[in-house]
């Protein structure tokens, strides 16, 4: 997005600092051509996940512009195996975020619409030759390095690059080649995935204020959607603000796209989640099922975003007590996600536990116990010492307790308590519940002194 008022500054040709050595394929007599080539080659390699080649091109482009980025950190961006760009990579960002019981929140694998401006930017010769200073070209290069850093999970370096691009943008006397809104979106996205939600809210509010006209309505809608996501993810969800932003985003997106567009599906899915946590299950299902229809139609039946909405709808049917429909949706989720994310993934563990709960509620204890066991095994492999593992252990304890097998129940409760004490605050309510369950078993056995010790 660019400013609406034409610049009144006098055009000064771009001055490029000479560099002694360029890659053989990128050496041209005209430094403007060299700069364009280097940036665009970097974009090409970035889109192919060839990070070492991409960062080499961007580094040379910065040198041409007389700019500098720490060469040690530059080298680190290209030295690792390119496989870590896989969106299912088990990096710290894969398991970050607000965790609400038995709910799969969409971070990296699933789309909440939080990373709208995620494409690197090419420089055409006409745009480059019209730039009035080196800083304008440097904005593009720093922005592109920021995108590379995001793919490499180097959030500190990404933030620095986007901040430098934003600084140069704000010092421009004319339209920036990169929208300040796009840069702010990326900074806010980094804050969001690192659970700095208040900072992210502030950044996206700044992005909303950066719009200089209403002509860029789709970008405006994307910003509203992001604000909705952040209000939703606050420790105490601000459902009213989330819904207001989502509704405005949906209205704009439908106005431009009609009903059948992936961004419409994303916002519908997000609205469904607000209704869900408010206990408005019928309204949640209306939005989930429409999102599911759109996503299946546009993305294909095996897409991870289809799986996310299947889970959400299944969870809602579960809460409504329609266990057969819930199980149907849960199984479809598993069919999609296991081949894509692998068996030992946190969401597979969560889903196995949810399926076990259905059989548990139907008193099909053997099926439930089998699935709880699988959930425990996967959860330990995917998460290690984690509250989700403790939750599965405690549900297994509940099942054994209902069957009258107090020894097995006590064993699972004690295992769960050990995990909870390792990962939760000593006053966390989950620990209180587990201690109460253990005390109840001692009471049933007449072991009052043991119960009192708790």
Polypeptide structure, described:
This protein has 454 residues and is mostly helical. It has 20 helices and no strands. The protein has helices at residues 31-47, 51-64, 71-79, 125-130, 134-151, 155-170, 180-193, 197-209, 217-233, 239-257, 262-277, 281-299, 304-320, 323-341, 346-361, 365-383, 387-402, 406-423, 429-444, 448-453. α1 (31-47) packs parallel to α5, α13 runs antiparallel to α14 (323-341) and α16 (365-383) packs antiparallel against α17 (387-402). The longest helix is centred in the middle third of the chain and has 19 residues, at 239-257. It is elongated, with a radius of gyration of 26 Å. The termini are far apart. Residues 1-28 and 81-103 have low confidence and may be disordered.
**Average of pLDDT:** 85
Cα-based radius of gyration, to the nearest Å: 26 Å
Helix content: 55-70%
Summarize the biggest pleated sheet: none
Order of SSEs, N→C?
HHHHHHHHHHHHHHHHHHHH
Individual helix count:
20
Structural descriptors:
454 residues, elongated, mainly alpha
How do the strands and helices of this protein lay out in sequence?
Elements lengths: L30 H17 L3 H14 L6 H9 L45 H6 L3 H18 L3 H16 L9 H14 L3 H13 L7 H17 L5 H19 L4 H16 L3 H19 L4 H17 L2 H19 L4 H16 L3 H19 L3 H16 L3 H18 L5 H16 L3 H6 L1
Helix pairs in contact: 1-2, 1-5, 2-3, 2-5, 5-6, 6-7, 7-8, 8-9, 9-10, 10-11, 11-12, 12-13, 13-14, 14-15, 15-16, 15-17, 16-17, 17-18, 18-19
